[in-house]
Amino acid sequence: MANPPTYLSAADHERISEAVAQAELQSAGEIVTILADRSDGYTDVALTWSAAASLLVLCAMAAFPDFYMGLYDSLLADWGHEWTPRAIIALAGGLAALKFMGVYLAQLWQPLRFALIPGAVKTARVHERARRAFRIGAEQRTVGRTGVLIYLSMREHRAEIVADQAIATRVDPEVWGDAMAALLGHVREGRVAEGMCAAVLKVGAIVAPHFPRADDEINELPDRMIEV
Q1: Structure confidence by residue, pLDDT tens digits, 169-225
Q2: 7 near 187, Cβ under 8 Å?
Q3: Sign of torsion, CA 116 122 123 124?
Q4: Among 22, 31, 37, 133, whose CB has the most other CB atoms within 10 angstroms?
Q5: Which UniProt keywords are listed (predicted)?
């Protein structure tokens, strides 16, 4: 498998870590940042499109059998060929297999594969991957359950903000809208690091009124940006 693209430089990582540290000076919230190239391989979606294409060619052959049989005869110059039921079934199976493989191989080109994935599927997969990453990296890993994950998935053009139990009970999900807008606004223009820094600072400002930083606060989760 090819290595995923690198979206951030070493300097970008440093800037994001500094933004996390600055945001955590305002509140007891612990902010974790993750950038993913993609949230899923979507093999099932590629197989579904391939199966649909093979079914479509079978339907087309059923509707226009003379065209396909004539095309076969003209391409192979098979004079005097007799179309038995077995030969027709073999032709249909061959066409379906070729169409299946052709469509699947075409989707190995990643821009096409992601263009064919329904938006709702992308949203659901990014949400699930963000929740899984949060459970592994932030959930219940702080004393006050004040972890917040900012998750950005580049291929799907989607992001998620997931908060631990204590924060989630006081901050409605809609409140993260400004942070999401700040993040995605920069990312759309290719400024990934700036977007992540802006989102981090806004998350810190949202959490601060509910969980002000104590004098003896310790850093419980790493500030570094994680790329996966």
Answers
A1: 888 888 888 889 989 999 999 999 999 999 999 998 998 888 888 766 676 677 788
A2: no
A3: positive
A4: 31
A5: Membrane, Transmembrane, Transmembrane helix
